[in-house]
């Protein structure tokens, strides 16, 4: 199921007391303490639609990191936004939240037989999938296909950015590092149920929650907790890439690294788009 999506992602005006949103409601900063940093997506997510954020700022001295998930509770109906997503929001019911750690974010299935079946099914699916230009540029989760272009974090342009970019691509850096990109989505599993998946720098961590009822709208939950101080939403393109994106990909295929753009005779705006986006 290639999602026919593309709504502009924003944070909901209802959020934790320590959260400050920018004017576009695409950046959330926790301005005090380490808690009361819960944010929600403005609109419910569609099946296969990812709510993706990038860690922009961190704050030393706190234990714990970003938490992400889904809730069937309409933020507008909350009497008060809980102090913590875990356990407070989850304990209210109809919410599923996953704590991002420096390590061990991959979900391990308990049922060995089911694991073997999934591996076999995955291999068969991979074998049957048509080989095309787009195959390696998309993340496949069940029957959902998401462009990888925006899913992977990128370092700040600088002397060693070509090395850091490769570390983001291979998930060698901690998921909690600055510039890491973390997203949440759900995929339909049978009639009326779904699994929640967490994606870290373009890699699916597996089904972190199963059997989520889909008879109610599901909102993304982003808890800007503890060492994570600020996140921004990354807009993801679905379907055919824009002309801008195709142009950038064509240019990047012919250079060693994006910082080499400085030596090309290109308009400054195009250089910046290729380097920073």
Textual characterization of the structure:
This protein has helices at residues 85-91, 112-128, 161-169, 243-253, 268-276, and strands at residues 19-21, 27-30, 38-40, 51-58, 67-71, 95-99, 138-141, 144-147, 181-188, 193-200, 203-213, 219-223, 228-234. It starts with 18 loop residues before the first strand and ends with a helix. The chain has two domains: 19-240, Jelly Rolls (Sandwich), CATH 2.60.120.920; 242-277, no CATH class. With 277 residues, it is an alpha+beta fold. The protein is globular, with a radius of gyration of 19 Å. The strands form three sheets. The protein has a seven-stranded antiparallel beta sheet, with no helix packed on it. The model is unreliable at 129-135 (pLDDT under 50). This is Neuralized E3 ubiquitin protein ligase 2. InterPro entries: B30.2/SPRY_sf, Neuralized, NHR_dom, SOCS_box, SOCS_box-like_dom_sf. One of its GO terms (biological process) is protein ubiquitination.
């Amino acid at each position: 199921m290639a999602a026919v999506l593309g709504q502009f992602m924003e944070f909901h005006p209802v959020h934790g007391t320590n959260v400050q949103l920018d004017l576009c409601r695409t950046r959330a900063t926790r301005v005090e303490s380490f808690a009361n940093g819960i944010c929600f997506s403005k609109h419910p997510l569609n099946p296969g639609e990812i709510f993706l954020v990038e860690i922009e700022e961190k704050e030393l001295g706190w234990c714990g990191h970003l938490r992400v998930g889904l809730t069937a509770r309409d933020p507008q109906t909350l009497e008060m936004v809980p102090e913590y997503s875990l356990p407070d929001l989850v304990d209210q019911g109809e919410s599923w939240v996953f704590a991002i750690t420096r390590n061990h974010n991959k979900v391990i299935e308990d049922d060995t037989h089911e694991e073997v079946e999934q591996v076999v099914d995955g291999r068969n699916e991979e074998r049957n999938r048509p080989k095309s230009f787009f195959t390696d540029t998309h993340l496949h989760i069940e029957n959902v296909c998401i462009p990888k272009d925006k899913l992977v974090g990128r370092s700040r342009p600088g002397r060693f950015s070509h090395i850091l970019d490769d570390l983001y691509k291979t998930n060698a850096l901690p998921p909690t590092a600055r510039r890491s990109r973390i997203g949440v989505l759900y995929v339909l599993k049978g009639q009326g149920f779904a699994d929640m998946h967490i994606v870290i720098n373009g890699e699916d961590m597996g089904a972190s929650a199963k059997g989520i009822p889909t008879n109610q709208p599901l909102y993304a939950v982003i808890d800007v907790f503890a060492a994570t101080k600020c996140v921004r939403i990354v807009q993801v393109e679905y379907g055919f890439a824009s002309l801008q994106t195709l142009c950038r990909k064509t240019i990047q295929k012919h250079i060693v690294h994006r910082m080499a753009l400085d030596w090309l005779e290109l308009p400054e705006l195009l250089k910046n788009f290729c380097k920073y986006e």
